[in-house]
Amino acid sequence: MVNAHKDFNTAPLDPALEQEVKSIVDDLSLTEKVKMLSGHGFFEKFFGEENRQFGQRAYPAGSGNERHDIPSLYFCDGPRGARHKRNTTCFPVTMARGATWDRDIERRVGEAIAIEARALGASISGAVCINLLRHPAWGRAQETYGEDPVHLGEMGAALTEGLQTHNIIATAKHFAVNSIENSRFKVDVRVTDRALHEVYLPHFKRVLMSGCASVMSAYNKINGDYCAHSVPLLRNILKEQWGFRGFVHSDWVKGCYGADAVTAGLDVEMPEGIFYGSNLEGAVERGEVDEAHVDEAVTRILRTQFTFARADDPRTYSEEDLACEAHIQLSREVAGKSFVLLKNDGLLPLDRDKPQTIAVIGKLAAEVNLGDRGSSSVNPPYAVTILDGLKSAAGPDTQIVFDDGSDPARMIECAKAADVVIAIVGYTWEDEGEFIPGNEALEGLDPDKQMPSRGGDRSFLNLLKSDEDMIAELSDANDRLLVGVMSGSAVIMESWRNKPAAIMMTWYPGMEGGNAFASAIFGDINPEGRLPFTIPTDADHLPFFDAEADDIKYGLYHGYTLLEKSGQRAAFPFGFGLGYTEFTYGDIRATKGDKLPTFEIDVTNTGDKPGTETVQFYIGFGESLIDRPVKLLRGFEKLFLRPGETKTVAFSVTHQDLAYYDETSRSWQVEPVGHTAHIGANCEDALTRTVRFETEPADDS
């Protein structure tokens, strides 16, 4: 099924629709227009019947006019499912889905979320979170796809296309440079134009060019202005340079700070008209805000709303779609594709038919651990723990025993008596996630009630000391140890990664995560996840991070680009992952295109099991005369190969793949120097297969 709105931001405007919208706008009073630029009724229910529990329903999100029979838009949050008090499907967190590197399955996830959102009466979804993972301490890392703009953009575009197939308006968030959680309401991110355009915006543009029809502005400041008040960000770049046709709405409650935001390009204030509403109406009447900006905002809202509401639906939607069997099985499939096998010294896969005792250690193995409990929280009808999944999948001669690890002596005896030990370690919503800062987020709105803070940025990058101690003790007790790590981003493993026989990133794997984990452990599926970020050997190899910062500088380098620039090798590089088979790469072949080459490579499964390889294409800039990364990801493809099978994958080069942003001319430029093409299984392995090619500047660069 194809996204019916893929050309929303690129096709010529519909003259008839534009005239219809203009006639409505011309007929509306200022009061009516301003009313359309905010949500309504949120606080009354939130502080009343909903008992301060967010995500209990779809929320009015702008538009709505009774005289013209225009309904309100209704917002449903994501990104790991349609958020509601009703039971809905809980998918693995976005970072886990980023580890699949699978556009097709992410598009299917988008469709499933949209189907359930439509069944709940929603018309706009907040599922597309594409903020760049600059540092693994970021609390909301689990809500995005990873550290690389190309990977982020491709996965976000796939989710967008899936959502909008079912005429749900996708909103890309949080625009922009939003990657610190605790200080998100105040931090001023200082970023050069070059770093902004090359690192922090390309994925947003890619998603918008896939048809994404709405954007949520971020809480933080950018170069001195709150994002919702940033003329360079919202008006100059988003609406003028990129030609964005849809509307921009704020993040919730503290999303904007004055009526002047509409001048900057913020079309809707959510969830209520705190600074819009009567305040905005008064600002227009006093001449502080040009009414033309209000008209533009209403035009953008109605253009988007009418386009989606009048499109043919591919199906009908009902309560039977909520957490239906097809979506539950999709959640399991996604989880199975997301696990990243980091190490395997001959331990996996386990033979379920072999008589054996498997000791499952650690409280997280028996707990439902779906991710943070902020705006992305989902309410599934059930969730399968890792312990339950293993018990269900084990053969008749396999005994599963469990110990929570609270008594070290008992735990060690359990491990010594077992043939295999599986230790589940990592974090929960208490260690990382959306920061809900007590009453600060709702300051002055309900002073009689207090709410404890929770979630936030990580205060450490290692495992908890109790987890590291447990791994050390279990390694001494049994050399057949698998460590499963539950986390939303990178964990530094230097103190223990050489001890266990196997290590697997399991993420927060969704409602079917336990069953999917067992399938991977027993070899029913071949692990195919690849790291969507770098795991360093030392926190000092990462950019500066301060969770309480008032201001911070963002530069060109982070993740694999920073490690390569500084000559540091990763513990596990970007794009890395093992499986139960082996792949061999041939030599790169270059074919001439009109101006730039296309590169091909043969990949062969040389093992004895079927498997899926993620082939990654990088371009190197070693001959550049300016400061540039060593190389950058420019494409990726997944190949399923049977034992002995060979397939060819091809990557074409565009001028944009080579370009850098020149701040003097405020344009993209291509250097007339040699570049190198790198193809391989991860960013470090790709260094071993390179080919140099010359290029000339693009005519339109």
Automatic annotation (TrEMBL):
* Lineage top rank: taxon: Bacteria
Q: Which residues form a coiled coil?
A: none
Q: Name one GO molecular function term.
A: beta-glucosidase activity
InterPro entries the UniProt entry points to: Cellulose_deg_GH3 (IPR050288), Fn3-like (IPR026891), GH (IPR017853), Glyco_hydro_3_C (IPR002772), Glyco_hydro_3_C_sf (IPR036881), Glyco_hydro_3_N (IPR001764), Glyco_hydro_3_N_sf (IPR036962), Ig-like_fold (IPR013783)
Residue span(s) of domain Fibronectin type III-like: 613-683
Enumerate the Gene3D superfamilies for this protein. Answer: Glycoside hydrolase family 3 C-terminal domain (3.40.50.1700), Glycoside hydrolase, family 3, N-terminal domain (3.20.20.300), Immunoglobulins (2.60.40.10)
Asked if the record carries the keyword Hydrolase, the reply is yes
Q: Which UniProt keywords apply?
A: Hydrolase
Q: Which GO terms describe its biological process?
A: glucan catabolic process
Record SMART domains: Fn3_like
In the record, the note on similarity to other proteins reads: Belongs to the glycosyl hydrolase 3 family.
**Per its record, how is this protein called by name?**
Fibronectin type III-like domain-containing protein
